[in-house]
Write a structure and sequence with these properties.
Strand order of the largest sheet of chain A: 7-1-4-3-2-6-5-8
Number of domains of chain A: 2
Structural class of chain B: mainly alpha
Order of helices and strands of chain B: HHHHHHHHH
Largest sheet of chain A: 8 strands, mixed
Number of helices of chain A: 2
Number of strands of chain A: 8
Distance between the termini of chain B: 50 Å
Number of strands of chain B: 0
Oligomer: heterodimer
Number of domains of chain B: 1
Amino acid sequence: MQHTSTQDTFVGLFVAAGIVGLFFLALQVSNLSSFTDGDSYTITARFENSGGLKPKSPVSAAGVKIGKVSSISFDPKTYESVVQMSIDSKYNTLPDDTTASVFTAGLLGEQYVNLEPGGSDVYLQNDGKIDITNSAIILEKALGQFLFKSAEEKK
Amino acid sequence: MIQFLQYLGKSTRTSFTKLGRATYFLLQTLSGTLSVLLRPRLLLNQLYSVGVLSFLIITISGLFVGMVLGLQGYYTLSDFGAEETLGVMVAASLVRELGPVVSALLFAGRAGSALTAEIGLMKATEQLSGMEMMAVDPIKRIITPRFLAGLLSMPLLAALFSAVGIIGGQIIGSGLLGVDEGAYWAQMQASIDFKDDIINGVIKSIVFGFVASWIALFEGYDAIPTSEGVSRATTRTVVNSAFSILGLDFILTALMFGDH
């Protein structure tokens, strides 16, 4: 091999470019940089109806994303939806009378949990529970009520 | 009728024999890994001819594929007033599917055919038997370094393809068509998951690199040592690689993204 050192340089450049590409995908394209699983704590809220909420749906307070939904399960005794959320441990000053509601963002209907802090001095700890919850608004239900009401008014 | 049955049985048997030879060949190739790692120079030379020389075609194709995705996605999404999700569409289709698949197809066309022709010609000019005469194992000396180089280059090339494509989509989307640049990136970051999308894409590209290099090297090694035989083997490499890559892509997609 005559041009070994130029070849080495090109191979080095190629490998470096590939790794830069991977880093670009990891940091710029995916959500790896914005939120990691490492430092978070879990809180649970029980909803009468959690609507179209899915695991990984965002949890936000005052419009800022502070965590995500980690799991949703159905409690067969109380017939409620049990939503576990992992919150970034930076935000560990949520009062224990925080209200959790399921809202819809945008027209395309992505659903998220909105946390409305209350006035208590006691903060939510890991495995804490949120007692005050507002269920998701189901469009069909709301529409049905509206139609029913307007029909009654006409009478 | 009897003749037809005979032909059917014979061709079935031939294809199974070939698959068996290919498996044996793969095991032999893998068993040479250690001795190649002890002589990294061999691997480096092959990384140059397999990886570096495919660099240009991969990046240019990636750029154009990304730009086309940006253009087409914009036209479709703007009907729903959802141009801001252009980044998600471009990135998701590139990282999950197009990046690994198209770069593997290009890799099979650019590097795979070259490998088959090179090894087929080595066989036709009896260089491989010459090596055996000198007590040099041609599998360890020739085949394994090329196989490992293909296996290593493929994920890097696919990552480059996706990265360049996403930038191409951004150039068209926010440079030409006026999608907000912040929304392009922010929506993308919110929807693309590192583990589910990017790691799965990398796994796909490693599998494709494995299969494409295996097919290319085996076809070359198994070629009939004439000029016609080498040309047929090269054709078979491209055709079989394309089939296997697309078929495997379906299976991998069903496995990886099936549960949501």
